[in-house]
Amino acid sequence: MIEGEVNNFIMVWMVATASFCYSHAVGKLVTNGGKARLVALFPAIVLLFLLPLRLTSAHLGPPSTFLLGWLSTFKLLLFAFHKGPLSSNPPLSLPYFLILASLPITFQHLKDPNPQTIPDPHNNKTRQIYRLGLMAILSACFFPLYGEKQDSFYPVFTLLLISLHMYVSMELVFGLASVVVSKLLHIKLDPHFDKPYLSTSLQDFWGRRWNIMVNRVLHPTVYDPVVRVSSHVVGRKWAPLPAVMATFAVSGLMHELVFYSFKREKPNTLERWEPSWDSLCFFLIHGACLTMEIGVKKKLGGRWRVPKAVSLPLTVAFVVSTGLWLFVPALARCGAFVKGKRESLAVVDYVRTLALT
């Protein structure tokens, strides 16, 4: 079973790489972005969206769904209209196109697609490595708390434990990817997180501190088009409000898709999808609250601001409480933790068997 899943994983990413090569060639042949390029890229977009269906494991399926089924397809949609991280002048070389299309990274202040010409004066690699080391240690400290010990915890504490572990793991994985790519290409990358625990508002949390790379993809694919359409209905001043709701709705639906990939047990099948919609509700609630926050700020015109000593704990408390109420339980209900633990034990047994033979 493990060998079959690994073979499927290799096949999925080989086909995805071929799709990216095809997309890069389309960009050179169809130089003007628009409907013609979208039609040419459409087969690659559909293929990337469906490829993760080949995978059923909790460790390989959801990450591939996130990277290929969500981020890569959105990047190619932007590329079809000569926008987004895959578009530059002059065009990206094939290696850089492949890296940007497949990995959760964006180049910072990209002016020339050649890494040797992009200075990196402010990148403190030593501090970044120390931070990743700390994240690795913290991540390892969570594992002894699971299992039988977890049964003695209060349910809320267990959910909080899982939330912290998720955040630390995301920081570690995304940070390692950035360090490796930055080291190989000698280029500065945008950070994925910017101390989200210091957020002083929902706008600060979602717009500037949490999963910045995803925000860079959702903004031009969802937010900007809705703003343009809404401007004709409610005016330019209030157009961002429906755009925010639309962006959070799309993000919620894509998270539901990732959660669905945890449930799947058979490759290449569209099993019945019975989402709980908790994840979507989480994002809709945050979208509604952020919309109200922006509306109040526009109404006040910057005349009054909540002190940081008050806004910071309120923001963090709201994000954590809604996450414990909706997001983390939804992740647990889709079997992510049970399936992940079962697969981890299976890998350990498999490696042990190979060592003894």
Q: Which tags fit this structure?
A:
12 helices, globular
How is this structure best summarized?
This protein has 357 residues and is mainly α. It contains twelve helices and no strands.
DSSP strand tally: 0
Structural class computed from helices and strand pairing:
mainly alpha
Largest sheet: none
Number of helices: 12
Helix-residue proportion: 55-70%
Mean pLDDT: 83
Q: Beta fraction of the residues?
A: under 5%
Overall, the morphology is globular
Radius of gyration: 21 Å
How do the helices and strands line up, and which of them pair or pack?
Elements: H1 2-29, H2 35-50, H3 61-80, H4 94-102, H5 125-142, H6 155-185, H7 202-209, H8 212-234, H9 240-263, H10 278-300, H11 308-333, H12 336-356
Give a written overview of the molecule.
The chain has 357 residues and is an all-alpha fold. The protein has 12 helices and no strands. Helix 1 crosses helix 4 and helix 3 crosses helix 8. It starts with a helix and ends with a helix. About 4% of the residues have low confidence.
